[in-house]
Each structure stands twice: as C-alpha cells, then as structure tokens.
Isocitrate/isopropylmalate dehydrogenase family protein
Amino acid sequence: MTESDSYRLGLLDGDGIGPEIVPAAVQCVDAATAAAGIGPIEWVRLPLGRSAIDTHGAAVPESTLAALDTLEAWLLGPHDSVSYPEPHKSRLNPSGTIRKHAGLFANVRPAKSFAGSPALVPGTDLVIMRENSEGFYADRNTYAGTGEFMPTPDVAIAHGIITRAATEKIAVAAFELAMTRRKHVTIVHKANVLQLSTGLFRDVCREVGADYPDVRVDDFHIDAMTVHLVRRGPDFDVIVTENMFGDILSDLSGELAGSLGIAPSLNSSLTQAMAQAAHGSAPDIAGRDIANPIAMILSAAMLLEWLARRHDDERLAEAARRIRTAVDDTVGDGVTTGDMGGSASTSGFAAAVVAHIASAG
Ligand code: ATP
Ligand code: MG
C-alpha cells in the first residue's frame, strides 16, 4: 500500500489483443476502486513483449523483472512469443518467464457460467488449482537439467517431477480457497498408472486435507474427471491437480462454462500475484476492437480479491464485487462481444461495465 492509502499495481501490456483488453480492465479497476473509497491506483507500467524488443532489446527486460520484485500484484496482457523475430522467438512466453522468476506456483482458473449466456454445462461454478512449477511440462523441470531430451534422433524422453514441497503448497492454497467457497476439494491424478508421481500428489493432498475437517475431499483419475465434468460439472467446487492435467482440465471446464473469452486466471505465490486472462493473444482478431475483455476484467477482479485477503482490506473485496456485478449486469443487458453472440465492441463493453459500476449505489 502507498502512503496515499491506495495501491501500486504493475501493468504489463500484451501482444495481439492485449492493448485492447488490458485498458478495458484498467478502466474497470479504476472505477471500482474509486467507488469503494480507495485512493487512485498507482499504475506502474513496465515494458514487456513484442514492443519491449524494439524499445529495450528483449521481450523480458531485466529492468522489468527487477521492478516486479518490488511489486506484489500486477496485470499481464497475453503474449505471442512464437511471432517474435529471431533471436527472441521462444517456446517460453514472457508470462512463463515471469511465473518462473517470481515463483508463482499456483495457477488459479475459475470456470463459472453466466446467467443469460450460453454454456455447454450451465450452473458450473468451480475453480481449478493447477500446480504450475513442476509436473510433466518439460520447460519447468529443472531438477535433471532438462525435462525433455533425445538420446538418439529417433527416441524422445520426457520426465515429470512431483515433489512433496510443491504439492503441499498448492494443496494448502486449494483447501484455503475451499474454506471460502462450498468446502469441497477434488484431487485429480492418475495414480493407477503414474503410481509414484501422481500417487505422491494424491497422498500429499489428502494429508493436507486432514487439517481441514470441514472440507469434503474426493479424488478421481484425470480421464474419469473429464467425464464427470461434462456430465455433472456443477457438482465440483475446487479441483487441485498437477501442471499438465490442470492445463487440460482448465481449457475443458472454461469451455463447458462458456467461451474462452470469459475465462480469467490468477497466478500466485504466497506473496505475489499476477492477473492474466486464460486465453492467448488472439492475433486473428487483434486491432479490430472486437475481442471480449471479460476474461481480463475478471482476472483483475481476482487480483483485487487476492489483495483484499492479503491486506485484510474489505474495500478491495467491495471493488471486486462491484466489477463482478457490473459485468453480470452488462451481459444481462444483452451487451456482449461477437464470441458470445453479441455485437458490442471491446471498448463499448468496457464503457458499459464502467457505467454500471458508476451507477451502482
Ligand atoms: P496461445 O498459445 O497464446 O494461448 P492459442 O493458440 O491458445 O494461443 P488464443 O490466442 O487463445 O489461441 O485464441 C484461440 C481462439 O480464441 C482464436 O480464434 C481467438 O480469436 C479466440 N479468442 C481468444 N481470446 C479471445 C477473446 N478475448 N475474445 C474473443 N475471441 C478470443
Ligand atoms: Mg492457448
């Protein structure tokens, strides 16, 4: 918090539709925090991505990482590192570099359907807690030097890592979250086949769960879980799982609840958090003011809720509630972007949300 009784938040523009949806989220945060009685947010704009290659010679400038070390929360636009010119082209997006640098081990991905907006599984309201620092994604495995390698040109080997320490952290985050929701945690693994690794994940989550007697716990294999989500998505509350399973399940559940354009996410450690839409930079629709800003706006609301818990500041929770209600009301008015079947522009949608925030009592 700053001396003026407000907050400093980092702002990292994205590629593609980033420069359209990030300002939309900023407008909503500014309107909602003002309405909740918080002084003006101090936005700290940091260079990142395609534009930073031109201005700073790197997609992720060292100065940006150093500045992030001084912040506890920031908004991040989507990035498209595959389109960067050589030698900046990379498999690891700037967001991956930042997640690694800041140790943001939890990827929190809610999937909630909107009343009045089409959903394959209406009534879905769940949160996926995806462990984001290890597992079966080769780029994150640092224990053996490399997570993926080819001993001969015709053989490729990938390994997965599950540790008690990392599993405990994501499990605690999942159970703490469940205590604020419907008090139900579902552990997803594949312990019948990957017995040692995902078996350890399941067992450690169960051990952590023993400290939360009020929380109901069940567990499923990843393959069975996809079936349960499609058949009875509304039965699930908090799902905790390893990296790759979480990646797959969160796209599935996001789509079951609605479109990719409404799926928010938060990446967090115990001390820092980053709001990031679950979707990518959507280069196919960039620059046309038609992208859906809901995912970015709701990611910003999640960031305010995280800050509210951390600072025990009810005004931030109030600001987040105002944003959520205003988004619901805007969609309820039939104002939606093309991906949701409407004809609103990105900026028009944001203006409608801001108007709802301003007119709410
Ligand atoms: P990345 O590797 O960056 O995640 P991706 O291949 O997963 O990229 P996205 O950029 O997420 O792709 O886009 C997938 C599809 O969803 C595209 O057709 C895109 O236009 C659409 N899309 C993504 N985000 C939005 C949004 N906010 N509004 C409308 N359409 C979107
Ligand atoms: Mg993607």
User: Anything to note?
Assistant: The two ends are 26 Å apart (CA to CA). The first strand starts at residue 8 and ends at 12. Residues 280 surround magnesium ion (ligand 2) (CB under 6 Å).
